[in-house]
């Protein structure tokens, strides 16, 4: 079982790395022949950087358009970041000081993550216009994320696993010094869910993660009057 899980995790990471690289390369090569920055837009490069930061960190445009969807979305994403950072303790030895500091926050962030997911899923079920455009894959991705979060909470509060053995296994993955994995079913389900998520991520709608940086409505300056826009490669 340990060998199967190791092979699955390595395969998932490789698919994620090459899939993201291929998709980013595709985004990079798509031409932007027109100035289509969504106004009000910044007129300087530093203004664009600040706008992208606000968009990535605070979901500025979503906040302006719909407050309650923004609340659930930001709650989920912020909690997800904390949970991921908290998991770094399994891959570092000694554990970095700042990771130790965020452990109490990351421990309960999974609850916020589940609440945010529930709100976003409820949106797809309740709002007629959103339900109409929702595909089965949208619900499957939400179910996958919910399964990962709930199995993680189960490992924390119900089906506790051997943390020392799990950390030894995790460090072995990084150092290519493979060790035995605890055989708790909940842990295996959690790792399987993570592996599936990594595999499908480059090919799903979840790829908005890097896509925001390549959106011409967000990464362009609004200065066509001050400076003639010549797209890369010319027209």
Task: Break the fold down into its secondary structure elements and pairings.
Layout: H1 2-29, H2 45-58, H3 60-65, H4 67-86, H5 97-126, H6 128-133, H7 136-157, H8 163-175, H9 185-200, H10 208-211, H11 216-219
Helix pairs in contact: 1-9, 4-5, 5-7, 7-9
Describe the structure.
- Helix content is 69%, strand content 0%.
- With 235 residues, the chain is mostly helical.
- The protein has one domain (2-31, 59-219): Fumarate Reductase Cytochrome B subunit (Up-down Bundle).
- Helix 1 packs parallel to helix 9 (185-200), helix 4 (67-86) packs antiparallel against helix 5 and helix 7 packs antiparallel against helix 9 (185-200).
- The longest helix has 30 residues, at 97-126.
- The protein is globular.
- The chain starts with a helix and ends in a 16-residue tail after the last helix.
CATH topology name: Fumarate Reductase Cytochrome B subunit
Category from helices, strands and their pairing:
mainly alpha
Radius of gyration: 21 Å
Terminal Cα separation, in Å? 57 Å
Q: For the record, what is the CATH homologous superfamily label?
A: Transmembrane di-heme cytochromes, Chain C
Per CATH, which architecture? Up-down Bundle
What's the helix count? 11
Number of domains: 1
Silhouette = globular
Q: What's the overall average pLDDT, rounded?
A: 91
Uncertain segments: none
Report the order of strands and helices.
HHHHHHHHHHH
Task: Profile the largest sheet.
Answer: none
The counted number of beta strands is: 0
Q: Give the C-level CATH assignment.
A: Mainly Alpha
Strand residues, percent: under 5%
- The helix content is 55-70%
